[in-house]
Specification:
Elements lengths: L5 E6 L6 E7 L2 E7 L7 E2 L12 E6 L6 E7 L2 E7 L7 E3 L11 E7 L5 E7 L2 E7 L7 E2 L12 E6 L6 E7 L2 E7 L7 E2 L15 E3 L6 E5 L14 E5 L5
Antiparallel strand pairs: 1-2, 2-3, 3-4, 5-6, 6-7, 7-8, 9-10, 10-11, 11-12, 13-14, 14-15, 15-16, 17-18, 18-19
C-alpha cells in the first residue's frame, strides 16, 4: 500500500543494513535491506495493536540486529522491538496514566541496545519514556513545568550517550529544547535566540553527533498547521546547549 503511503523513520546501523517505517494502505509498514538497498523486504509485526489502521514514525537501530520503532495504532501509542534484525518484532509495554492510549510516540533514540529514550504526546501532554534494559520496562520521566508542554508535544530526540539526551518540540509557550546529562533523572529547558518566531512555533528535527554538538530544525508555525508562517529555522550549539 505504499503507492499511497509514506515512509517517515529511517535507521542505518551500517552501509549495507537499513530499516524504514511508515504506513501504507494496509496500515503500518516496516521494510528492511541487508544489501545496501538493492532489495528491500517487508517485515511483520504483532497483530492486536491496531496497526492495520495505524503508522510507525520513529526508528532507532543501535546495531544490525537490534531496533526499536514507535508510532500509534487503533489502541494508542506503540513500541516495537527486534533483537534479530527484524525476523521477529515484539510489542513492548509502557506506563499507564500518560494518556498514551489515545496518543502517539513520535521519535526514539538509543545510545545502545539496552539504553533508549522515546518521546511523543498523550492525553496529558508531552511524554518522555526511558528504558535501561532493552525495553523490558519503560518508565516515564518528568520535565520542567511552565513550558506549555502539558498541552504540547515532543517531536525530535537525539541521545549521543546513555546519560546525555536532547529533545525538541513545542507547547503553549512556543518551541522547546530540553536536555539531560544524567540519563533523564532531570531534564532542563534550554534557551534559543529570540526574533525567530519560535515563541509561537515548534522545533521538530534534532541531531547530536556528540554531547556538546547539536543541530535543531523546524518551522515557525503550529505543529497542526500544514503551511509555515515564516522561514525555516536552523539552530546549533557547540557547548551542549549552554
Amino acid at each position: 500500500g505504499l503507492s499511497s503511503g509514506f515512509l517517515q523513520g529511517l535507521a542505518c546501523p551500517s552501509s549495507s543494513s537499513c530499516f524504514a517505517v511508515g504506513a501504507g494502505g494496509s496500515g503500518a509498514v516496516i521494510i528492511a535491506t541487508t544489501n545496501g538497498g538493492a532489495t528491500w523486504t517487508s517485515q511483520s509485526y504483532p497483530s492486536g495493536l491496531g496497526l492495520s489502521s495505524g503508522f510507525l514514525q520513529g526508528l532507532a537501530c543501535p546495531s544490525s540486529s537490534s531496533c526499536f520503532a514507535v508510532g500509534a495504532g487503533g489502541s494508542g501509542a506503540v513500541i516495537l522491538a527486534t533483537t534479530n534484525g527484524g525476523a521477529t518484532w515484539t510489542s513492548q509495554s509502557y506506563p499507564s496514566g500518560l494518556g498514551l492510549s489515545s496518543g502517539q510516540l513520535i521519535d526514539v533514540a538509543c545510545a545502545s541496545s539496552s539504553s533508549c529514550f522515546a518521546v511523543g504526546a498523550g492525553g496529558s501532554g508531552a511524554v518522555i519514556l526511558v528504558t535501561t534494559n532493552g525495553g523490558a520496562t519503560w518508565t516515564s520521566q518528568s520535565y520542567p513545568s511552565g513550558l506549555g508542554l502539558s498541552s504540547g508535544v515532543l517531536i525530535g530526540l537525539a541521545c549521543p550517550s546513555s546519560s546525555s539526551c536532547f529533545a525538541v518540540g513545542g507547547g503553549g509557550s512556543g518551541a522547546v529544547i530540553l536536555a539531560t546529562t544524567n540519563g533523564g533523572a532531570t531534564w532542563t529547558s534550554q534557551s534559543y535566540p529570540s526574533g525567530l518566531g519560535l515563541s509561537s512555533g515548534f522545533l521538530n528535527g534534532l541531531a547530536c553527533p556528540s554531547s556538546s554538538s547539536c543541530f535543531a530544525v523546524g518551522p515557525e508555525n503550529d505543529a497542526t498547521s500544514s503551511s509555515s508562517s515564516g522561514p525555516a529555522v536552523i539552530l546549533a550549539t557547540t557547548d551542549g546547549g549552554r
